Amino acid sequence: MTAANDVVSSAAPAGPLISQRALIILGRCVFAGLLLWAWQWSANEFGIIFFAPPLAVVQRLYEMAISGEMFFDVWATLRISMVGFVIALVAGLILPFLLRLSARLTEAVEPFILWSQGIPKYALAPWLILWFGIGDTPKIVIVVLMVFYVIFITTFAGIRAVDRRLINMARIMGANETVISREVIWKSMQPFFYAGLKVALPRAVGACIVGEFLVSTQGVGYYIEHSRELSDTVGVFAGIVLATTLVLVINMIVEKMEKAALAWRPVDRT
Amino acid sequence: MTAPLLEIRNLGKRFASRQGREAATWVIQGLSFSVPDGEFLTIIGPSGSGKSTLLNMIAQIDVASDGEILFNGDNIGVLDQKSLKPGLDRRVGYVTQDDNLLPWRTTLDNVLFPLEVQGRLDDKARARAESLIKAVGLSGYEKYYPHELSGGMRKRTSLIRTLVYDPPVILMDEPFAAVDAQTRTQLQEDLLRLWEMGRKTIIFVTHDIAEAVALGDRTLVLTKQPTRIASEHKIPFGRPRNVKDIFALPGFAQVYESIRAEIQ
Amino acid sequence: MKRHRLLIDRILVCIALLALWQLASWYFGVYWVSTPRLTIVKFYNSMMSGEMLRHAGYTIEEAFIGAVIGAVPAIILPFTLRRLPGWVSVIDPFMVGGYGAPKLALAPLFILWFGIGIESKIALVASVVFFIEYFSTLSGVRSLDAKLVQMAQLVGANERQVARHIVFPGAVPNIFAGLRIALPYGIGAAVIAELISSNRGLGYLVQIGAMNFDITQVFAAILGATFVVLAVGWFVDETEKFLLRWRPPADSLMEQIHT
After folding, report:
1. How near does any CA of chain A get to the CA of C240, in Å?
2. What is the C-alpha to C-alpha distance for residues A187 and A39, in angstroms, rounded to an integer?
3. Are A166 and B87 inside 8 Å of each other by CB?
């Protein structure tokens, strides 16, 4: 769903179009300015209890960076997200390949997997907290649950979507099953895999932050929720800006990885 | 006379009808022919006459329901799914109607693919791939991905990808069906030129009479379902041939007409 | 025959899962893992007394109002901007940013602004639904077949008629693909906001159960929330099927990855 830049990049060469591109960039700057102004205006209008002014937020972020608190919180969040993500990634990749071995088992468990997707995973948090206490474990479990389904379903769909004709072609040319798994199935799954990754990685961080709202003594989510409890609106805003930046940076990294790995695909993809 | 390289005896294929309500129908029944080593055989038949099914059975990606397929005198006809050996240990190559290029591999890597999976990727193999790429005019496109090539270029890539590992028999299932007439003539010339270099055994299926006559040493005409051989036609032209001028040759109209009459 | 076997297989899997749950309950104790029977009895009683329905009703109300507030502008915007691709590119980076941003992290902010009542949940649901629906609709409007538009213009359709008869029907599948993702996610968001701070709703029911160390209550409430999510998904699917009778059936696995 990255609709970004399609319009701009598809209209590149001729002369007058360059000025159109400049217009768009100008428009973006104006829009950003408008948003900032609306933010400042809201802060003046509703008061600092409800709306932290942009400058105060910037200053708070600066203070957090200077004191090292920012890196401490970001690291805490990233650590939990990554541990959960890796566990879910391994399980979500291996399980569909195992299910591939038995069509009968796949058919039998499929509806249960789809139904279990409907469980609001966050609602398990209070129970997990009771069970595991307030350490890392309940948050990791939440991240695993949130990420697992995404990876599992994309891998599953990816394996299913592999073109049978390519597999036949490789067999005729003398490829064995290992080669086919690696060279045909894994490769043609890549678009699915990255589609999953693009949803899963930001979601891992998002899930961790929500986990931190519910139970934590550290992390970006803890910082936001703690600030809210103290009625420290500037803190809430700063925390949200930090969380958003973190997720967007991760998004960018995944997009770069995808672009490099999927260079073989036609560019006009949706 | 030497024994044929490939012999089909009384071959039959039956598909179970949907939901198993009616009796299974025979798509192919009692089909027999043989192909000597080095022959360019063309097979022509009406659409839906089970031409692809026939090739699938020879290539061993589909089971036969009846009859025998002999390769060098050995019976390789297989009646159950599990003992299928696709490609018969690389002795049967198969160029399908879809190019089936791996979209994540460049032209060169696609051509090298069979050598790579067969563990035969050495300098000699690379040189052979390069020379084939050159022979079909794809030099300069080695680093292009399939989606960046034209339909004709993809066909050429798919063709030389099979030629590169040198299987004794090559099956071709309407490989030039989906391209425009001019490109098709060009591809046919390329194919004949490549074939002259090695004289492999080729079984070429098409629904285009002119193509069957222009390429083949011999043409088999198939019947409607259940498919069997309707007739056999020797093609009276020598080699090398010029595909562009084939229509003008004496005897062309006669062969063409007699095949056309068979098909109706 | 084959259908029969599949049904038996699935019943066996179902029994195995319930047995596993029961075993876990014996092993860890009912105090930590409630039994399937207790959970279902609690769920049934809760339904009968009306308590479950009341809380589910709150959650559905939050999700519904939030979804309408989020989805309506998200659907209208791409249509309005269809003839103005420049404007679409101007707002694009902001929309991409909003789409990628962790909206659930806004929950404390909305609670701060709107209090612990229904308004904060509605705001959260709307912010979640808006961005998903915007990009779905946009891709529908963009992937529009230019030839169909040309054909309509050739037979004399004006701009409004093109929008009404070509663009909108063409985008309906995308609008629904968006809803299929956004609505269950929206319900999840409502439940999360209730978990963090609320005095009613299914999330509140879970939280209260946990506070009273009543695991059966927690499980029953989660079961209720799961039913709500599945029911909404089913409802969207059926509506889509009805509206898209003209479309050949397609595999929708890719659409499910977001839920």
Report:
1. 19
2. 46
3. no
Residue range of the domain that includes A193: 53-261
pLDDT digits (tens, 9 = 90+) for B123-177: 988 999 999 999 889 999 999 999 889 989 999 999 999 999 889 999 999 998 8
Locate the DSSP E strands across chain C.
none
Which segments in chain A show pLDDT lower than 70?
A: 1-18, 267-270
Asked if A196 and A69 sit in the same domain, the reply is yes
> In whole angstroms, what is the distance from residue A73 CA to residue C27 CA?
37
Considering the domain architecture, whether residues A62 and A36 belong to the same structural domain is answered as no
Which among A174, A263, A264 has the least Cβ separation from residue B87?
A174
Quick one: fold of C34-258?
A: MetI-like fold (1.10.3720)
Which one of A31, A150, A240 has the shortest CB-CB distance to C90?
A31
Residue C34, by phi and psi: left (phi above 0), alpha (psi -120 to 50) or beta? beta
Interval C133-173: pLDDT, tens = 999 999 888 877 777 777 777 777 777 778 777 888 888 88
The answer to whether A251 and A202 are in contact (CB under 8 A) is yes
Q: Which of C97, C64, C92 lies closest to C77, judged by CA?
A: C92
Which two structure tokens, joined as six digits, stand for B73?
């005198």
Cis, bond preceding B240 (omega within 30 deg of 0) = yes
Residue type at C84 in one-letter notation: L
Q: Which two tokens stand for residue B77?
A: 């006809």
Burial annotation C62-85 (CB, 10 A radius, 16+ → b, else e): bbbbbbebbbeebbebbbebbeeb
Contacts 24+ apart (CB under 8 A), B189-192: B189/B242, B189/B243, B189/B244, B190/B135, B190/B136, B190/B137, B190/B156, B190/B159, B191/B159, B191/B215, B192/B240, B192/B241, B192/B243
Asked if the peptide bond before residue B36 counts as cis, ω within 30 degrees of 0, the response is no
With residue C101 as reference, give the H or E element that holds it: none
Within a domain: A269? no
Task: Kindly tell me the sign of the dihedral angle through the C-alpha atoms of A173, A178, A181, A184.
Answer: negative
